[in-house]
Amino acid sequence: MVGPNGQGKTNLLEALGWLATLGSFRGAAPDVLIRDGAPRAVLRAEGDRAGRAIQLEAELPRVGRHRVQLNRQKLTKARDLLGVVRVSVFTPDDLALVKEGPSGRRAFLDTTLVALDPRLDAVVREVDRVLRQRNALLRQLGGRLKPDAEVTLDVWDAKLADAGEALARARLDLVAQLGPLVSERYASLASAATPVALGYHPSWLETGLAASLAAGRAADVARGVSQIGPHRDDLAVDLAGTAARSHASQGEQRSLALALKLAAHRLVTERVGVPPLLLLDDVFSELDPKRRAALIELLPGTQSLLTSADRLPEGSHPDLVYRVDDGRIEAASMGTRW
């Protein structure tokens, strides 16, 4: 899809991503997704998964809860949609995956885990739920732990230890599988066989989360926040033996971020047997010609939707090209420049 900026290309990809995950890949709130002046947004899509027809319909009202149907059957739980349609999303923001803080890398790991095994969504959600409850209790304490609150904190610590260690074990396994795939894809993107290493080493893993929470309880109470657990962990990305976040060039960081995303897409395809729908939102504009060409070569030969504010990159051979102009979509010529 081609067209000037601000015409609706990202909106279309975001709509597809929302139907697959019930969330915006930009992190936008539901009311932001509704056109100005409209009472609701309505999304409909039809597809095919392993020979089975899929129809997804969603209504996002400005007030109230959204409603979703899968093959005309109402979804009562969001997790019932997990794994039905998988998407891999590349956006310009993803190119900062290596450069920015650890929260984006944690989200990358957890999103990939759920794509590989939808059952892990319950683990991710449980960690988030327990942390919210534990932090709320710590804030209420005002720096002083009373006996009745200590009993409640013991309960939350036990729940966090169980869910947190399960999540950490899943992350460890994922990082081990991603490592070789990332190295291969980085070598292709950067045209250099520079060693790439991924590491996930929670400080609390050796002693166990329960023991670490107990040892850090006084500090947590004093500060009113949980300072130990999977929510504070990071995915280390090293290039040639040094931390890529602080020592790699901007071009190297971008290549590493793309390598991470491409590796995750490949791993999900291999493990699940069905390639995710690939959504690339104007990623090529952030890359130099050499990396554009390398990325085109690395793209899997499966269904992909690509947007560009300029002509499509050299070497791309799309089956269909559409122009998006002021929210309208029409057939376009691949050679047209906007």
What class would the helix/strand composition place it in?
alpha+beta
Distance between the termini: 11 Å
Q: Tell me the Rg in angstroms.
A: 22 Å
Element pattern in H and E: HEEEEEHHHEHHEEHHEHEEE
Q: Look at the structure and give the mean pLDDT.
A: 90
Low-confidence stretches: none
As a percent range, the share of helical residues equals 40-55%
If strands are numbered along the chain, what order do they take across the biggest sheet? 1-2-3-4
Strand content: 15-25%
* General shape: globular
- Give the biggest beta sheet: 4 strands, antiparallel
| Tally of helical segments | 9
**Strand segment tally:** 12
Structure keywords:
338 residues; alpha+beta; 4-stranded antiparallel β-sheet; 3-stranded parallel β-sheet; 12 strands; 43% helix
Describe the overall structure.
- The chain has 338 residues and is α+β, with helices and mostly antiparallel strands.
- The protein is built from nine helices and twelve strands.
- The protein has helices spanning 9-21, 102-116, 120-141, 147-190, 209-215, 217-223, 244-247, 250-272, 289-298; strands at 40-49, 52-61, 67-70, 73-74, 87-90, 196-199, 236-239, 242-243, 277-281, 304-307, 322-325, 328-331.
- The protein has a four-stranded antiparallel sheet, with helices on one face. Strands 5-9-10 form a three-stranded parallel sheet, sandwiched between helices. It has a three-stranded antiparallel sheet with strand order 6-7-8.
- α2 (102-116) packs across α4 (147-190), α2 (102-116) runs parallel beside α8 and α3 (120-141) crosses α4 (147-190).
- The chain is globular, with a radius of gyration of 22 Å.
- The N and C termini lie close together (11 Å).
